[in-house]
Amino acid sequence: ARTVYESNNIGRLKLFGALLGAMQIDASGRIAILYLDHEMARTAGGTYEDTEGLINLPLTVKEIQAVVFFKQDDGDDYRVSMRSKGDIDIGAVAKEFGGGGHKNAAGCTATGAIEALRRTFVEKMGRAIDGRPAPR
Questions:
Q1: If we measure between CA atoms, which residue out of 94, 25, 11 comes closest to residue 59?
Q2: DSSP string spanning 22-87?
Q3: Which band of pLDDT confidence, cut at 50, 70 and 90, is reported for residue 2?
Q4: Model's pTM, two decimal places?
Q5: Which terminus of the chain, N or C, has less C-beta within 10 A?
């Protein structure tokens, strides 16, 4: 049990702390936004692989219905992971960007300024939470 449950390294722990400390919540209080770039990972002494499973943690909060996690790939290129609860289909959001996955777990890649990407994904995920289709 110790091998499985006590196998974190200090870099992973510090990275979790940095990511959760910088986490944003949208104006509705329903969407958590996580962001990681190469500098944050280096500063914490962790790696992108150390973030495995972190995306699910905000979903343990009753009010949070969905999570979007932006991981910088190169420059303005991002790997975007999304998770949701219940009937919220974020897989449809991922498909809009050429990605895929399932109703409650999906991902894609996106390019652009991070603030614009945050606004776009929060808006689209908000529509998914409300059960509204994307505008044509």
A1: 25
A2: H-EE-TTS-EEEEEE-HHHHHHHT--GGGGTTGGGGGGGSTT--EEEEEEEEETTEEEEEEEE-TT
A3: low
A4: 0.90
A5: C
